Amino acid sequence: MAKRNTAIALLASAVVMTAVSAAAIAQSGRDYIYIVGSSTVYPFATVVAERFGRGTDFKTPKVESTGSGGGLKLFCDGIGVDHPDITNSSRAIKQSEVDTCASKGVTDIVEVKIGYDGIVIANAIDATAVNLSRADIFRALAKMVPGESDGDLIENPYKTWADVNPELPNVRIEVLGPPPTSGTRDAFVELAMEGGCKSIPWVKALEDTDKDGYKSICHTIREDGAFVEAGENDNLIVQKLQANPTAFGIFGFSFLDQNSETVKGARVDGVAPTFDAIADGDYPVSRPLYFYVKKAHVDVIPGLRGFLREFTSERAWGDEGYLSDRGLIPMPQEERSEIAANVRDLTPLSMARQ
Fold first, then answer.
1. How far apart are CA 195 and CA 317, in angstroms?
2. 324 pLDDT more than 50
3. Is 121 helix (H, G, I), strand (E, B) or coil?
């Protein structure tokens, strides 16, 4: 009894969360799993949550779409029922975020890689199909672009796609995309923007001599209206593309897959964003997806361990799993087995990455 009382006291102070009863959690105001984070991972987490709620005696987990950065901030705020148990992320957690978590008592974090996704640049189904190079994407969306001579940078002067590349449509550049808190945006600037930026030799050379300058050039998106921050709701971007056939939108492959009757993805460097092209590594703008869980909350929040088992089961994330029907690109069997073992053993992030 003394051990249980000690655990409840620590939970109330939000310093350490150990084994307490489900009844104690319920009295504290939460007897369900609380998940935040990436809008890209949101539909996958929601499907697992709904199946878990229907197939067990536990309540259906609450899943909120806050963006990867926003979710990690909420996740790192502390231990206890006032804070999320899981945060979804369309990028790996940064060391600075790990440090922030640790400073607030969130130390044993379990990283769960769930599969792969492609970032698509899509437009309305009846709009002109395009083949964009990553160099085109950089020149269309970067704040500063190279001028006439090496080392010369100018404010982005391109107004139309034809200004960027004469082979592209002569329509105004208008791209609806995620905000800075989004993991999709982080991945987009790293994979697509930087990928195109490296095609300029003198800029690429800066990576070795001036990393900050290099990153500033390659990662900074223009702010003159050509790129429109459309929030964390990818479904809203899809709807806006239907209303504006000359615009493009940036979001995860799963949203393209689920809305293939209304939008289509541009080819990037000649490769169409398809399930097979992403799985094979041929599509150049693809990335892994994750969620992160607090080890301290497992076996305390009712159903959390069972939810982890469901998400990492073959029926969910396997080659023929129900998440692949929603657009998740499965990892190879060996990788899935290794990650599932880490989840079962609640292997902390620091050990799993060794």
1. 29
2. yes
3. strand
* Of 238, 257, 261, 249, the residue nearest 326 (C-alpha): 257
Correct CATH for 2-117+288-352 of 3.40.190.10, 3.20.20.70, 3.40.50.1820, 2.40.50.100 = 3.40.190.10
Which overall architecture, per CATH, does domain 118-286 show?
A: 3-Layer(aba) Sandwich (3.40)
Strand partners for 175: 227, 248
Q: Kindly state the tokens that stand for 49.
A: 């949550």
Structure confidence by residue, pLDDT tens digits, 136-163: 999 999 999 999 888 899 999 999 999 9
Query: What is the rounded average pLDDT for all residues in the chain?
Result: 90
> What percent of the chain shows pLDDT beyond 70?
90
- SS3 call for 133: coil
Element (DSSP H or E) covering residue 141 = helix 134-141
- Please state, as a whole number, how many other Cβ atoms lie within 10 Å of the Cβ of residue 38: 31
